[in-house]
Amino acid sequence: MSTTEQISGASIGRLPLYLRELTELSDKGVATVSSEALAEASGVQSALLRRDLSQFGSYGTRGVGYNVQQLRRAILRIIGGTRVRRVIIVGAGNLGQALVRHAGFADLNFKVVGLVDVAPELVGTEVNGVVVTHPDRMIETIRSTGAELAVVATPASAAQEVVDLALEAGITSVLNMAPVALHVPADVAVRNVDFAQELQILSYHQARRRVVEHA
Amino acid sequence: MSTTEQISGASIGRLPLYLRELTELSDKGVATVSSEALAEASGVQSALLRRDLSQFGSYGTRGVGYNVQQLRRAILRIIGGTRVRRVIIVGAGNLGQALVRHAGFADLNFKVVGLVDVAPELVGTEVNGVVVTHPDRMIETIRSTGAELAVVATPASAAQEVVDLALEAGITSVLNMAPVALHVPADVAVRNVDFAQELQILSYHQARRRVVEHA
DNA sequence: CCATGTGAAGTTCTTCACAGCT
DNA sequence: AGCTGTGAAGAACTTCACATGG
Question: Which of A133, B31, B36, B139 is deepest in the core (most CB within 10 A)?
């Protein structure tokens, strides 16, 4: 439980998967779960799950399994999920609006506190209870709402400039959905989500499959 | 140019990034690009880019760089982007509809040929020119349209059953946006995209940052 | 002289397999 | 007897640094 705990990047990426299944088990009233069962539900190997969990302490009992509640709370603490984290979404196009309307973030303690877009017909309106503001007022919006995570859902051409504004306002974590590589200082965390990229990766598998089939 | 070329998984994930930048360079009329410049634009290290590219042949000239057109075509062929790939989207909620409306897939030669949802008020309507059909007719829809990629944008509770239907219809590549681990045969490719997961990973970085700041 | 292509080293991540605890 | 936690091995991935070719 030290503050200098260093969890590997790959492991951190899986913690949300485990958390999701643990929450489900918890809701069902299940008290303990084996690494085998939790791993299966999460889509990973049991040895990998055990190694992941062992990195931040021992929440399992040999011969029994893991205490669902304890483990869930532990992961929740590690990823900061015990506290509300405010999110600002930049870009109120198809994707940005879909995100604002998306249920499920609230359950995880994320709160969308702002939505930003340049379109005059959108500025001032509300989407799912969130007011749309103009990028000119983005820094102000971020500061007044206390947003700490920014989601970039703009066209690629606008992504870098809005991220620069966000950084100026003190944002240090960015979820980038624009199909472009963002340039940020080393201490800023960026995660990229790109549907087109994912489809292209799947397309590669399809292409290879065809080769194999024709062999 | 052998058919047994084996490109590492991590490399394949980056090919779309390179392709994106190469297409931009191509549009600008740039003839050659150095690994340094292309890597910078793509957000990777130049040595990594060179290693990636060297895996499927030599498209560079020492002392000069890479031929933009040639390299672009080569990557396009590898990921199967020279051919139209038909996509069916399952789930016409916020996300599914945003995807159907999303411009940019067409440029990459992806065509949305079907949209599936259970909601009676949606079935039979059109979204961006694509007719919404009921899951009962999904197998038929997949077969008649020739869809080869399926995007799962349903609630988690419905994801596994729709994927099972898709597999039955012959789908072998799935982009899963539902927050649940899908179980599929080993020869089916699945890519998971989960916003909540990404936000949680960023949240971890925020949590760590706080610890450091308070040190 | 310049930038690619690549052995070699280094790092990170995963799996194996079993000792150790309950 | 059962399941975790982990050393050790293995696999995958990235970076270094320079020989090589244009």
Answer: A133
